[in-house]
Write a structure and sequence with these properties.
single chain, 3 helices, globular, mainly alpha
Length: 68
């Protein structure tokens, strides 16, 4: 039996695509508008947390958050 979280069942499994993360972030209600830099900071924080929890690989974290 697989355990899932009540609020984000999609995050209970390994994340394999950047699109999955962006979809979850987009589903959350926003009380204010973020600029491009702030959106990227939120995305990086989410990726950092997913990496810490072992839901994404180091390679994906680097590929998605590294600015070249």
């Amino acid at each position: 039996m697989t355990m899932t979280t009540a609020t984000f069942p999609i995050l209970s499994k390994m994340i394999h695509s950047k699109r999955m993360i962006l979809d979850v972030i987009a589903e959350n209600p926003q009380t204010h508008t973020l600029d491009r830099t702030q959106k990227f900071m939120v995305f990086c924080n989410v990726c950092d947390n997913l990496l810490d929890e072992g839901r994404i690989t180091k390679a994906n974290h680097k590929r998605w958050t590294e600015i070249v």
